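Regression check, iron/sulfur cluster case 541:
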Amino acid sequence: MFCYQCQETAKNTGCTIKGVCGKNEEVAKLQDLLVYAVKGISEIVVKTKTDAAELHTINHEVLTSLFITITNANFDADAIETQIVKVLGLRDQLAKDTEYNGNQDAAVFTVDSRESMLSKASSVGVLATENEDIRSLRELIIYGIKGLAAYTEHAYNIGKEDVSIYSFIYEGMAATLDNSLTADDLVALTLKTGEYGVKGMALLDEANTSRYGNPEITSVNIGVRKNPAILISGHDLTDMEQLLEQTKGTGVDVYTHGEMLPAHYYPAFKKYDNFVGNYGNSWWMQVGEFESFHGPILFTTNCIVPPKTPEVAGRIFTTGAAGFPGCPNIPADENGKKDFSAIIEMAKKLPSPDEIETGSIVGGFAHNQILALADKVVDAVKSGAIKKFFVMAGCDGRMKSREYYTEFAKQLPSDTIILTAGCAKYRYNKLELGDIGGIPRVLDAGQCNDSYSLAVIALKLKEVFGLDDVNELPIAYNIAWYEQKAVIVLLALLYLGVKNIHLGPTLPGFLSPNVAKVLVETFGIAGIGTVEDDIEFFMNA
Ligand code: FS2
Ligand code: SF4
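Current build output:
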């Protein structure tokens, strides 16, 4: 196996024996083959100039397939094999319907067993591209598209689609098979991926807010009650909605974990008396937190950490693209409806959660809420009460080096504000950082996809202050990344013209030295240094 798509990749060069994430060789190879099958479909769509608007089922299966291959989303070899078979069936039907007569291997290869899949996968993975710069750019595009696919899938679940995003996914994936494209062509395509990243995040923002209302300032309880309970993790708000509807009046409470915390900020979910609070921290802390929670856990997306004990594994359920061997995956019917009764019944028989902390955290500062406070914010900037904003969005992770972000937040001068989104926030959202004239010093917009809100806020401030360039704003970007959704967020920011983003705790292992050089020279991207040096640099920039 070879995988270097996430920040925790072994030695920052690649996982080759087993994933640091827990992914084994078989799963890694099946994921490679699934990506290759998606490239095959994309090739057919592009070569036959098929309109993506006509490909309803295929569009959706392509999103799901790419989502399955995101870090920590799906560890279930059987589920991935089933998806490969499904996608190859769709690919072959598409080739027939469109009279595709090309011979690109991804569009025509066949496999008839797990063994043949694994053998085929060995020759189509990341290392199949020999030139390291071309490989680096192809993978950068693919990882961005994986993140885009995840966000587009959530929007799809709410009934919002944009055919141009599907068309771009086919264009981008097909381009990674095209040996005639130069490094410059692929750099241009990387920026185009960022352009579609903005579209995808805007679509999801529109989907979430049109269905559930605009996030608003909310104090979220982090303590527990004495009722049996279900913990829901991941990013999908339609799953959140269905779980709350189905648990209503059953005596079973619902808590969020990790990236589901921002569900509390949406007006539509506030009416449920059994929606109690957030339990624990970011994804990698689940190992201990799931033990003390006692009740069943529903994963709606990544990030799954392979459970350490059969007792915890026996309480895990997945849905959508998420999967773990031996843990039931709750399917959707043709209308997207899911039956969570097995989870609810299990919860009723289990003890209530142990309390691991008490108090509350405040969030809900997505674009609409911030714009409602715009006058106050602008006055504070004009008066000098706020010197600088720090966008510290992105992901959290296990590495000790991420303590940097807690220290960075602690040591920032008291006239600065942190704008956050994604699970990166757990490194500082429980610190007592105070407020500036009533504006909290940590403003949480929501999930990683809500980094879109931070971009909207920046563009609005640019307009209010009458600036020509978003880089003239007193905003610094110190972003933490882990998996491929952070890649699309980064590409989206680059597309919007944001410069001098610092990215940590390590620069991606999949960037070859030459590609890294382009990003440094063109966009001023840099890694992180010491907390003291970085704060000094940003405050004087
Ligand atoms: Fe955090 Fe994991 Fe949000 Fe990522 S919970 S690293 O999936 O997408 O961010
Ligand atoms: Fe390694 Fe990350 Fe790939 Fe897992 S997803 S195998 S940790 S690079």
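Comparison notes: The mean pLDDT is 98. The chain has 19 helices and 15 strands. No diff flagged against the previous build.
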